[in-house]
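Here is the promised in-class demo. Please do not try to memorize the tokens; focus on the logic of going from shape to residues.
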């Protein structure tokens, strides 16, 4: 192993934000707190930079991880010192889903690194007063092939009311995050009572393909006209909100997914108001 970068660590062991970025450390904290996050690995900033530079020893250190997480992984950015209460780089730094072989995983790490150096990312850094060179770590996680997914705010980001606000749609949650659909929305009181359910316009879903990557496909009329979350699922999300608040504190933004009846925590961060 070269001296200028560290080996990948289990996500559960990622504790240094200066090395692994906010997302890795947050997910590691979730796993140590027994929250239902998918397992995976954290790649430190220097290791990611070395993979981006096509350093053979760095690539060798990472490429073997795929077999442990197969058949598919998600490769996500974890910026150092950038996401905060006042600024969020969500959507600027790349996430690559349903990566289905080791070579594609390495390419995905290189693409995530490159996404921090786009004109849009640099302009946002300047706007938010973030100085210095971008420092990007990477999360490599088991891909959750979700039936329904979305986001949940433990405080309503629109009204500021102390209630859960949920947006959800069929398929992978990137459809909600990237604004591909008008999601179903739900409001749940802090005691778990359903306050409102609003049908969205879920005419497409993002699905994982057997050959890798993802694609949009049409949603049939029956599912378009039905709410994508039932009472049991909303109860599970409320419980997840309580558990996340007990670990992270109040007013948080949660990305989540259901697969085969199991609820997974994909990300947890402070709400950017």
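The designed amino acids, position by position:
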């Amino acid at each position: 192993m070269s001296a200028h970068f560290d080996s990948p660590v289990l996500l559960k062991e990622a504790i240094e934000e200066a090395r692994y970025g906010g997302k890795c450390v947050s997910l590691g904290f979730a796993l140590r707190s027994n929250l239902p996050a998918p397992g995976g690995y954290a790649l430190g900033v220097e290791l990611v930079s070395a993979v981006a530079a096509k350093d053979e020893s760095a690539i060798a250190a990472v490429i073997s991880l795929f077999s442990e997480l197969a058949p598919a992984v998600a490769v996500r950015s974890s910026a150092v010192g950038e996401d905060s209460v006042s600024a969020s780089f969500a959507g600027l730094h790349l996430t690559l889903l349903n990566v289905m072989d080791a070579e594609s995983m390495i390419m995905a790490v290189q693409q995530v690194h490159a996404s921090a150096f786009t004109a849009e990312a640099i302009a946002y850094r300047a706007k938010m007063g973030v100085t210095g060179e971008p420092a990007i770590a990477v999360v490599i996680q088991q891909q959750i092939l979700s039936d329904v997914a979305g986001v949940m705010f433990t405080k309503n980001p629109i009204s500021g009311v102390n209630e859960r606000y949920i947006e959800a749609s069929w398929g992978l949650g990137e459809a909600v995050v990237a604004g591909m659909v008008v999601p179903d929305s739900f409001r749940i009181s802090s005691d778990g009572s359903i306050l409102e359910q609003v049908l969205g316009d879920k005419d497409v879903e993002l699905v994982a393909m057997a050959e890798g990557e993802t694609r949009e496909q049409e949603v049939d009329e029956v599912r378009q006209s039905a709410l994508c979350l039932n009472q049991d699922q909303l109860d599970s999300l409320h419980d997840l909100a309580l558990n996340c608040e007990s670990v992270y504190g109040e007013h948080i933004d949660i990305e989540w997914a259901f697969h085969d009846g199991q609820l997974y925590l994909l990300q947890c961060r402070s709400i950017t108001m």
